[in-house]
Amino acid sequence: MFTGIVEELGEITAVENLGDACRFRLRGPVVTEGAKHGDSIAVNGVCLTVVDHEGDEFTADVMAETLDRSSLGALGVGSRVNLERPTAVGARLGGHIVQGHVDGTGEVLERKPSENWEIIKISLPAELSRYVVEKGSITVDGISLTVVDAGPDYFTVSLIPTTLALTTLGLKQPGAPVNLEVDVVAKYVERLLASGQGAGK
């Protein structure tokens, strides 16, 4: 489990085409500290498994399913990525519960800068709109954010200077794809209500 609090802005240093998959080599001095084969690291909100680790770099295989359902397929050598290790048991939950399982992708529609923060508008797939509410939580490229405004096919988030400086959202311009993971609690509630268990049955 992750919390959506990005630990560092990493970089893809190599991409190997494996036919129906690809292998990324990524640089991240913070997340590779103590890393070993089989560990999980979230890359732009996608939970990936460490295949190999050497120095401040690690490799991870990305299957076709993940490439199809996320924006990772659009990345290449030199792309900057948000990196986060799983949260430790007993650690503070700084953001919200993030699984690292992308529900869909959106697109940066516009950016509105102000003196101390920036509002970003992001497109929202129709099938995910029911899970996104004003002041609720959403994960964008692995970043735990609070929804400012929720429309039928978009939402907005407000970014503080720290988020702009230390994550990919400080770099992405209109047209850029982003990974989206909605709040898993909302999905569980929907399932329970649909089965009648929410009514005490």
Summary of the model, kept short:
With 201 residues, this protein is mainly β. It has helices spanning 64-69, 161-166, 184-195, and strands at 8-17, 21-27, 40-43, 46-54, 57-63, 80-84, 104-113, 118-123, 137-140, 143-150, 154-159, 177-182.
Describe the 3D structure.
The strands form two sheets. The chain has a six-stranded antiparallel β-barrel. The longest helix has 12 residues, at 184-195. It has helices at 64-69, 161-166, 184-195; strands at residues 8-17, 21-27, 40-43, 46-54, 57-63, 80-84, 104-113, 118-123, 137-140, 143-150, 154-159, 177-182. The chain starts with 7 loop residues before the first strand and ends in a 6-residue tail after the last helix. The protein contains three helices and twelve strands, in the order βββββαββββββαβα. By secondary structure, it is mainly beta. The model has no long low-confidence stretch (mean pLDDT 92).
